[in-house]
Write the structure tokens for this entry.
Amino acid sequence: MIKINEIFFSIQGESSYVGYPTVFVRTSGCHLRCTYCDTTYAYHQGSNMELDDVVKNIKQHATKYVCLTGGEPLLQKETLPLMSQLCDDGYIVSLETSGDIDCKEVDRRVKKIIDVKTPDSGEPNKFATANLEFANKETEFKFVICSEKDFEWAENFAQKNNLFEKSNVLYSPSFSVIDENWLAKKILSAGSQARLQLQLHKYIWSPTERGV
Ligand code: SF4
């Protein structure tokens, strides 16, 4: 059994899969409390589902892209066999995780989008350094930038750990806190190799919409 907050069909708004029709599987529960969290409803709400029923639900939708998100999916061990089964079934699977939990048990075929919590996220120093071992061209390390201090911190973290060379580094402006134009200019003027990432879903849907 796995506690699921929601399963819905929408457009991927983040990562290198941005724009693809995607089934989102949002698990319930998160141990962090980021200042910018836009899924607080997933902290507790949800229903227990059998893995087979989750897969059946996914298969109703016309796409081969599935994204496990939360909450924090890795708080529930059942997400591991779910991701492996989806890969076996030919799905392209991505995982959005807080970065605070070691990803070593995640199926190697899964694209990992690993958050690195900045000082102004409200959850500083919440990063499992073991996750740096996954730094390869397939891995995406995502920093939500909440301030200039966060930008400088992210640059320092990424450079110190060679993330620009080994992986994809995404800088996402904290929505309605940081101006995307400011962040774009900051990336250019600092000579950063980060990719600017806007949350596409927040531009195409109304606040009450998720997709279809
Ligand atoms: S890790 Fe994600 S789900 Fe958890 S509090 Fe932070 S933004 Fe929200």
